[in-house]
Amino acid sequence: MNENENRSDLNMQDEENTSIHAPAETVETQDAEVEIIEPEYDSTAACADAGANEAELERISKEIQAQLKTYKITLWGVVGSIGLYLVCLFMIKSNALLLATCVLMIVMAILNTRYSKRIQKLAKERAALQASIAKPESSATAAAAEDGLQIGTVNTSDPVVTGVESLNELPKEYTVLDDVDFGDFSAEHVVVSPYGVALVGNADCAAELNAVLQEIGVESPVFVYDPELDIDTLAQNIQSEKIIALDEQQIMTICQKLLGLR
């Protein structure tokens, strides 16, 4: 009887020891995967904004050209009215003509001042717009630099545009200025681009143009072309120069000086 009880006690102790020393169950944990979703860059909207800015820039440039022509007309009107005033004062000696000439001179002077202010305002708008366009293009500028489009290198990536009927159809890196006055001489066109300055007109203007470039401290090659050439040939000749010579700031400085805004 006692032996059975002892055996049962031993069995119970073995079971307790087994339960105590049993290995604990392992719990496997899994790391939660976190997916980070970055906001997508709306390239379509950016391209649309860039296109709108380019169109606005082109509109302002054309308006400046139109205002410049009227400005020159009013300037000659002021000069002519002064000459007519002197003639009436010393030769004709007519009070009625003298009064009419004074009125004409005042009107022309007022118009000339207004057009001058309009041109200056448009030039400021264009400069601000060019600055805003240049900011998002910083990465593109860096990429261009990596491709070798730096001053002194040759740009062979842009094709030559042919079949044009006006120099204004040249690619956007060419800025065309019409009827540029150099004092005693006048050039039909001056085209400013990263590749230098193209002068279309009297070769005597080249010396005056070089003097202007020296005055503003810009070193640039000057290419002189015969205005008698047909427009398409002229455009192709201008585009044949592909050595990068000017940066954007130098181009802007030259254009402002030739437009009389500096």
Brief characterization of the structure:
The chain is α+β, with helices and mostly antiparallel strands. Helices cover 57% and strands 10% of the residues.
Identify the notable features of this structure and list them briefly:
2 domains; alpha+beta; 7 helices; 262 residues
Share of helix among residues?
55-70%
What's the overall average pLDDT, rounded?
77
Strand numbers in spatial order across the main sheet: 1-2-3-4
Q: Number of DSSP strands?
A: 4
Terminal CA distance: 125 Å
Percent range for β-strand residues: 5-15%
Biggest sheet descriptor:
4 strands, mixed
Query: What are the secondary-structure elements, in order, as H or E?
Result: HHHHEEEHEHH
What is Rg?
39 Å
Describe this structure in words.
The chain is α+β, with helices and mostly antiparallel strands. The protein folds into two domains: about 55-135; about 150-260, no CATH class. The chain has seven helices and four strands; from the N terminus they run ααααβββαβαα. The protein has helices at about 1-20, 45-90, 95-135, 140-145, 205-215, 230-240, 250-260, and strands at about 175-180, 185-195, 195-200, 220-225. α2 packs antiparallel against α3. The longest helix is centred in the N-terminal third of the chain and has 50 residues, at about 45-90.
Write the layout of secondary structure elements.
Elements: H1 2-21, H2 43-92, H3 95-134, H4 138-146, E1 175-181, E2 186-193, E3 196-201, H5 205-215, E4 222-225, H6 231-239, H7 248-258
Parallel strand pairs: 3-4
Antiparallel strand pairs: 1-2, 2-3
